[in-house]
Amino acid sequence: MTVSRTPQLTDVFRGSEARKAGLITESQLRSGRYRRLFQDVYAPADLPVTHELRCRGAALLAPPQAVLTGRSAATVRGIELAKPHDPVEMVVPEEHRFGPIRGIEIRRTETKPAETKPWHGIKIARSRRIALDLALRLSPRKHGWIMRLRIATPDLDAVLRAGLVKRGALVRMFRNRRNRGIRLARAALDLTDKRAESLPESDLRVVLHFGGFNVTPQHVVRHNGKFIGRLDLALRKHKIGIEYDGRWHNTVDQRRRDQVRRARLRQAGWHIIVVTAERLLHDVPGLLEEVRQAQAGSLRDQLTA
């Protein structure tokens, strides 16, 4: 047992090692004072379960060559792309047998020494490698090309928005890589825009892109020199605003503010389309058709003006 992996029962620990060291009995482990995170990995029950806590727990099971990466590494770095109980994402070299383990997603691929640094007995990916793995993390067999871009592009937007890495550095890195799926990674990077303020807003922008619409994120609307509002996405030429309403828009105060702001935008000549999470997930064709009809109406108004 290495010093770095000595069980500390105030934090994550391996049950088998704690019992062997005489720090806990089997009955104490099952008493409800501890919570199981993975097979043979536990934490005190009063510790809040965060994704970082689960990442540290997963590190106790992984070989030293394993690299925490993707959404997990981004979340550890302060960009919350993973929820507490989402799978912990790691890559390991091809020659190391590790897994499968429930709750840990493992990809087998090589990493370069400069792409990682030590972290809790394993390694964690550095910024550019995190971004690369965010773009490569989805299996082509399980997800279509567009759906993979709908997931990868928002993740990259978030990394760029947080300043974790610069886009130019990723362009150079992706250009020189030959990883499986690198073409999609380059395509996702081409679609990025760090002005996006949320993952769903980025997803909506990608959906509109593939629907044939070139939208501007976070467009500021002024009328007669006066600030009117800011739109999540805008077709500026046609004065069409497209807004994503997440769950936080459902509060009474937020709905009232949205109504007042959108009334001002409509008075300034803008057509506003509101997109909910349910519609973005289940009714993309209907959404795109609504935007097309609004665009056609705008063109008719311009011709008759």
Describe this structure in words.
It contains twelve helices and twelve strands. 41% of the residues lie in helices and 20% in strands. A hairpin with a 2-residue loop joins strand 7 and strand 8 (122-125). The strands form three sheets. The chain has a five-stranded mixed β-sheet with strand order 6-5-4-8-7. It has a four-stranded mixed β-sheet with strand order 9-10-11-12. The relative contact order is 0.07. It has helices at 15-20, 26-29, 51-59, 70-76, 127-136, 145-161, 167-175, 182-190, 199-210, 252-267, 277-282, 284-304; strands at residues 13-14, 34-38, 41-44, 67-68, 88-92, 104-108, 116-119, 122-125, 216-223, 226-235, 240-245, 271-276.
Low-confidence stretches: 1-7
| Average pLDDT rating | 92
SSE string: EHHEEHEHEEEEHHHHHEEEHEHH
* Helical residue percent band: 40-55%
Q: What's the total count of β strands?
A: 12
**Could you tell me the strand content as a percent range?**
15-25%
Measured between the Cα atoms of the first and last residue, the distance is: 79 Å
Short description:
The chain is α/β, with parallel strands linked by helices and 305 residues long.
Keywords for this structure?
305 residues; disordered N terminus; alpha/beta; 41% helix; four-stranded mixed sheet
Give the topology:
Blueprint lengths: L12 E2 H6 L5 H4 L4 E5 L2 E4 L6 H9 L7 E2 L1 H7 L11 E5 L11 E5 L7 E4 L2 E4 L1 H10 L8 H17 L5 H9 L6 H9 L8 H12 L5 E8 L2 E10 L4 E6 L6 H16 L3 E6 H6 L1 H21 L1
Parallel strand pairs: 4-8, 5-6, 11-12
Antiparallel strand pairs: 1-3, 2-3, 4-5, 7-8, 9-10, 10-11
Helix pairs in contact: 4-5, 5-6, 6-8, 6-9, 7-8
